[in-house]
């Protein structure tokens, strides 16, 4: 039998065959109830207790009773019972109870008693009457003994204190006092060896230390914390767990509350999104606990017939989804979720069901008839796609595809996207795939080819290489001398003697010359001033561009091969033989573009520009000197954006002076005794790149 708990009408569209079977069995049963709740009465007794009497048409059968702390309630589930109580809600004014509510659903009736505060309860059946007795006095169960106190670090920096008892009757009560969290256990004795303070600051959690104290027969545990934290506690059997988690930011908390619809209580446990609940179960059937969680979660819960047993559980401010995990872990259960339905059963049972379901699917596939499909490949390569489909990603073995038309990939164990019985061939002449497999696999592969076999985007890459040069040169030089004329004497009658230039600082290639002479009676001063000034400016712009497909390398080059003569000995002869060798002088662009998902382009490129700088004279001829400019890089660029991927700036400044010592340093006059030159050169290299994505035009069928 399968038990279904639901807090709202079950929906349709379940994929699980087991769920559909359970629903059919449920609704196929007759909805008549075996008993009827006829009347509800309440009275306050002399000892302060409140007695609530339920009157039935037939003797009382099995019931399930439980209580919750927040809000304080006592609930009684009456299986196979219909509700004939006319008031539905009985308002009370005296005693510990505030009201009694009766609700019928799915062939059962639930009676919920709202309390003023937490109270102990007891149920007694007398024939057709059930009496619920409420006692507001805090009753303490049988005394237990604390056997161990442990502390561990949990997920996301949480601290977990685990208290173990030698029995299951411990009744812990947790409360906050400033930065301290106090847990009082009235019916638990603390051994002498556990009465100490534990320093747990080294665990890097909000808990700094735990102080275990004996308070005259009861146990008090004080946890000193730092910072803001979320706190929760739960009890399963002989264990009581307190978990303290660092509180998330206010923005995150608001987001979680808006998403989950939780009441803003200031406490949120990381990792779970359910609304916080507080449960106090003492030996309650597991099915009853699952029903409560179904009510809180607004989910439908399907419990297998093997889910049974009772559970003692105390949960304080715990998200309902975490409460469900705790219950499942405590009873060795597991769950599977399908939409808003949760299927719960023993772990081994669920695993066995899923294994049997998978075995059945495989068995059906091995017996299913295969079909043949011929698929035309438009943009891709049929051989490459065949290899992709048969990649042995699941078994790790090798695969092979025939190179000739119609060569078949052998069948066997499952490979890639094919079933164990599938095979794929290709015809390179017509670029067609020949596929044989079961219909399900054929359909999956055809859907895959709709994604793979499509036109690839192309990219046009345009580069601009700019070489700018500026030059400036200035030279100043001078030469002068003195001519002497001597009169007629006895030694050299009628002879004139010329002394020539005494200062000679000329320019090698002057642009202008200024000559002048100063004549005297017997002496003349001849002077020549020389000057040169040159200016130059030039720009060289190269603009290579290329179009290529996405992730395909492209190369474009333009240039010359410059020849030159070399001599070398050849064979046994010693006479040098002249040979001609060549050097490439190229403008070249190499690029591999990759289009990203967000529409940008990643370029792996290399740009080169060579020029002949000069020729070096050798005995066999002139050898060219090549000036190289090259950049290799990888860059991410927006579509249509232009960026500078590289640049070199060169600046040369040179001053030269040749002068006559001492005389060349004389102000103003020293210019006649020296030669000066000034050279400045500036060269700048910039490389620009612009990618443009070329979308393929839509096909017209």
Q: Would you give an account of this structure?
A:
This protein is mostly beta strands. Helix content is 13%, strand content 52%. A twelve-stranded mixed sheet has the order 7-8-9-5-4-22-24-20-21-13-12-16. Helix 3 packs antiparallel against helix 4. The two termini are 58 Å apart.
Summarize the model shown.
The chain is mostly beta strands and 701 residues long. The protein is 13% helix and 52% strand. Helix 3 packs antiparallel against helix 4 (320-331).
Straight-line distance between termini: 58 Å
Radius of gyration based on Cα positions: 49 Å
The helix content, as a percent range, equals 10-25%
Q: Structural class, from secondary structure content?
A: mainly beta
Indicate the low-confidence ranges by residue numbers.
1-32, 249-269, 393-413
Largest sheet: 12 strands, mixed
Roughly what is the average pLDDT, rounded to an integer? 78
For the biggest β-sheet, the strand order reads 7-8-9-5-4-22-24-20-21-13-12-16
Strand content: over 45%
* Number of helices, where a helix is a run of at least 4 consecutive DSSP H or I residues: 7
Characterize the overall form. Answer: elongated
Could you state the oligomeric state of the chains shown? Answer: single chain
Number of strands: 41
């Amino acid at each position: 039998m399968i038990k279904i708990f639901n807090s709202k009408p079950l929906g349709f569209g379940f994929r699980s065959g087991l769920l559909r079977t359970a629903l059919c069995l449920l609704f196929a049963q007759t909805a008549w109830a075996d008993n009827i709740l006829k009347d509800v009465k309440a009275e306050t007794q002399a000892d302060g207790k409140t007695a609530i009497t339920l009157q039935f048409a037939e003797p009382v059968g099995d019931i399930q009773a439980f209580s919750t702390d927040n809000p304080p309630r006592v609930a009684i589930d009456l299986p196979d019972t219909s509700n004939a109580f006319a008031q539905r809600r009985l308002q009370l004014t005296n005693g510990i109870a505030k009201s009694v509510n009766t609700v019928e659903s799915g062939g059962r009736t639930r009676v919920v008693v709202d309390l003023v505060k937490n109270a102990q309860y007891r149920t007694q059946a007398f024939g057709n009457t059930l009496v619920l007795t409420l006692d507001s006095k805090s009753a303490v169960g049988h005394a237990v003994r604390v056997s161990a106190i442990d502390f561990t670090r949990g997920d996301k920096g949480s601290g977990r204190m685990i208290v173990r008892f030698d029995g299951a009757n411990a009744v812990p009560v947790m409360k906050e006092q400033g930065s301290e969290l106090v847990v009082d256990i009235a019916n638990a004795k603390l051994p002498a060896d556990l009465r100490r303070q534990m320093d747990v600051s080294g665990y890097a959690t909000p808990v700094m230390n735990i102080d275990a104290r004996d308070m005259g027969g009861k146990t008090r545990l004080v946890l000193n914390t730092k910072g803001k934290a979320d706190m929760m506690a739960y009890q399963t059997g002989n264990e009581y767990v307190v978990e303290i988690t660092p509180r998330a930011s206010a923005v995150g908390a608001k987001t979680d509350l808006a998403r989950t619809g939780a009441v803003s209580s200031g406490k949120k446990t990381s990792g779970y999104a359910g609304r916080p609940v507080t449960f106090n179960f003492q030996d309650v059937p597991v099915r009853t606990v699952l029903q409560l969680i179904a009510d809180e979660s607004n989910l439908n819960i399907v419990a297998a017939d093997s889910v049974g047993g009772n559970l003692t559980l105390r949960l304080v401010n715990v998200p309902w989804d975490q409460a469900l995990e705790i219950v499942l872990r405590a009873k060795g259960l597991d769950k599977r979720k399908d939409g808003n339905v949760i299927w719960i059963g023993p772990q081994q049972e669920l695993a066995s069901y899923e294994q049997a379901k998978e075995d059945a699917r495989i068995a059906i596939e091995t017996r299913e008839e295969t079909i043949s499909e011929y698929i035309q490949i438009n943009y891709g390569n049929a051989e490459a796609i065949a290899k992709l489909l048969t990649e042995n990603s699941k078994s790790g073995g090798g695969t092979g595809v025939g190179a000739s038309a119609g060569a078949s990939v052998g069948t066997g164990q499952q490979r890639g996207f094919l079933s164990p019985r599938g095979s794929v061939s290709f015809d390179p002449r017509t670029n067609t795939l020949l596929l044989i497999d079961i219909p399900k696999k054929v359909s999956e592969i055809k859907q895959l080819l709709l994604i793979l076999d499509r036109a690839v985007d192309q990219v046009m890459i345009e580069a601009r290489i700019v070489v700018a040069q500026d030059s400036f040169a200035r030279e100043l030089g001078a030469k002068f001398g003195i001519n002497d004329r001597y009169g007629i004497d006895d030694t050299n009658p009628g002879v004139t003697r010329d002394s020539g230039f005494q200062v000679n600082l000329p320019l090698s290639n002057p642009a202008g010359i200024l000559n002048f002479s100063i004549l005297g009676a017997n002496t003349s001063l001849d002077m020549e001033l020389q000057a040169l000034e040159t200016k130059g400016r030039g720009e060289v712009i190269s603009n290579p561009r290329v179009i290529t497909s996405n992730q395909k390398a492209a190369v474009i080059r333009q240039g010359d091969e410059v020849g030159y003569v070399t001599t070398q000995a050849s064979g046994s002869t010693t006479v040098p033989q002249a040979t001609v060798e060549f050097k490439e002088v190229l403008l070249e662009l190499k690029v591999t573009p990759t289009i990203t998902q967000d529409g940008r382009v990643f370029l792996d490129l290399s740009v080169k520009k060579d020029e002949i700088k000069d020729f070096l004279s050798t005995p066999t001829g002139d050898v060219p000197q090549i000036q190289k400019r090259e950049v290799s890089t990888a860059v991410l660029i927006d579509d249509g954006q232009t960026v500078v991927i590289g640049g070199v700036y060169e600046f040369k400044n040179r001053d030269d002076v040749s002068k006559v010592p001492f005389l060349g340093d004389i102000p103003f006059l020293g210019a006649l005794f020296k030669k000066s030159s000034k050279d400045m050169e500036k060269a700048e290299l910039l490389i620009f790149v612009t990618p443009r994505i070329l979308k393929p035009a839509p096909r017209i069928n």
